[in-house]
Amino acid sequence: MSSESKKIFEEISKLTTEQRNPRSMNIDKLPALEILKIINEEDKLVPLAVEKEIPYIAEAVEIVVQAIKNGGRLLYFGAGTSGRLGVVDASECPPTFGTPYGLIEGYIAGGKEAMFRAQEGAEDYEENGAKDVVAAGVTSKDVVCGIAASRRTPYVVGAVKKAKELGAKTLFVTTNPREHFNIKEVDVAICPYVGPEVIMGSTRMKSGTAQKLVLNMITTTAMVRLGKTYENMMIDLQMTNKKLIERAKRIVMTITGVSYEEATKYLEQANYHVKSALVMIKANVDFAEAQKLLKEADGFVRKAIELKLGKEV
């Protein structure tokens, strides 16, 4: 065994995500129903682990919000399951919150092909992550979030290191314990400890679920803090299909109490910009003034309405 192979073997052997789970030791002898019960019981541990990390997730959200306000981006870097989760979270933000493409992006070791077919060898070199960070044009305005259940994935470590060198804010999401993480390496580490997987080392399971929850929490909360919602409704969605057009009408109807026909009329007048249609109705203004009020309110619908009415709504 080469010295490099021995080092990797020893690193992996110590990882919590690579340990055997005593509760699933005899899983290969069980019927489907019992296997599913074990998986389900283990999955119940995930949100509890994420809950303990909420203070750190909140720190990450504030970093992301400030970066976006200052013209920066949120960029995810991961490999395998972790990389795919980053790509998925980033790709869902434009249709959900109306973010411009490129504001939140996901990069995966091995490139686009790795989304559909494993390119496992691509994650073994720090320089691959560093190259992708440079190719992405990362600057000090951006936030780079590394995602790796093991914490040690070379591609992710290399990406975060290079981002830090370039002056970007750095985050890291891992499912190994916080005490195993040198927190000086990043601005914020998020470490939901989910314990050993039902199938040893299969981090597509509890670890993947935890990472998915954390990424959803970061981007959703950041978007709320950036004025992308009114109450608990998404109001900056893009009209990219018929379903979303009808959802926009329903949102306008729900918030303002107007009829289907009126919601359609106002949306048409507002070029299907839901925020503008809401301000037009709630503040009784035309499209031009709605746009002006929204600009003064930094994109927050509630604040724009209050500016016009002179009272809280």
UniProtKB/TrEMBL annotation:
NCBIfam families the UniProt entry points to: N-acetylmuramic acid 6-phosphate etherase, PRK05441.1, PRK12570.1
GO biological process: amino sugar catabolic process; N-acetylmuramic acid catabolic process; peptidoglycan turnover
UniProt xrefs under PROSITE patterns: GCKR, SIS
Subunit structure and binding partners: Homodimer.
Catalytic activity: N-acetyl-D-muramate 6-phosphate + H2O = N-acetyl-D-glucosamine 6-phosphate + (R)-lactate
UniProtKB keywords: Carbohydrate metabolism, Isomerase, Lyase
Transmembrane segments: none
Role description: Specifically catalyzes the cleavage of the D-lactyl ether substituent of MurNAc 6-phosphate, producing GlcNAc 6-phosphate and D-lactate.
InterPro entries per record: Etherase_MurQ (IPR005488), Glucokinase_regulatory_CS (IPR005486), MURQ/GCKR (IPR040190), SIS_dom (IPR001347), SIS_dom_sf (IPR046348)
Designated name of the protein: N-acetylmuramic acid 6-phosphate etherase
Family note: Belongs to the GCKR-like family. MurNAc-6-P etherase subfamily.
The EC number(s) this enzyme carries: 4.2.1.126
